[in-house]
Amino acid sequence: MQRQSSTVRQDGPALRALACIMLLALPWQAGAGVAVYQAVVPLAGATEADRSAAFGDALRTAAVRASGQSDAGSSPVIAAAAADPQRYVQQYSTTADHMLKVGFDARAMDQLLQQARLPFWPLERPVTVVLLVVPSVAGGERAVLASERVPERTVIERAALARGLPIAWPQQSVAAAQVRAVLAGTQGAAAPEAWGGQALLAGAGSGAIVAWRFIENRQSALADGDLKRGVDLAADTLAARYAPPSSRGSSTIAVRVGGIEDLRAYAGLVNYLESLSIMRAVVVQGLADRVVSLDLTLRGDLELLRRVVALDNHLTPAGAPGPEAAPGPDFTYLP
Fold it and tell me: 51, 128, 142, 286: least CB-packed within 10 angstroms?
């Protein structure tokens, strides 16, 4: 996504030059990135009308993924754009099995979401580990692993792709009893980090009815339904947290970050902030006593920024200063 270049103020030319060099060599990523502005949809035929209709379907899919709203495609603004989608298309290709692969211009789509007053779900998203119990061929039940390809897994993966939900499956053997312990909310068993993810979706049941529990940020949500219902539970819960009403527009906030011990840390911080998908501009106002002052323009507000950076370990909330102390930094930077 295109963003404004950072601006550095009150610093010498040598600092600016060195920072620019170091910014080129320090890649960062928070959480798991997803290709929300790309979609693969069926192509009914070879005519221009068929291709235009597929472009529209792909645009609606991208709007759902980018906003976190399952009904984003029914927005009048999105529906109008889907009726004339070519100006949002950046690239496309057809496949041998009559599918159309479409890549949309991220900046144009971002503006479209704002016009539609839809929230923006940052591209840095928690990885959800899926624990699913299915009937065993030998009788009883078993949990699905990453090495297995079963029909239930295919349904869940397609639903997760449609919603823009990054998921993973257990790499090692999991007992059905362990999954049911997660569903029961047993302490320890329901910790996402214990399963190698940042969020956890557990499901077990028979036939068309599955009992689901989704856990993230020490909060859990329950639902009963089919396989797709579990994915919707996870996506809707995450979107409520990471695509709040504040992300419908942009704001500029003043932030102070401590822990800037040297020029490498300074460059790394600016590069990290600019890499975040919610960021639109980073303006450095000054650097003193290992604390950098910035004006950040972003989709959302300070609370959303806190939630996004909590997905990795590069910015941590700074401790509150004493009652008589001068205002301290908002975050501490960890290279």
Answer: 286
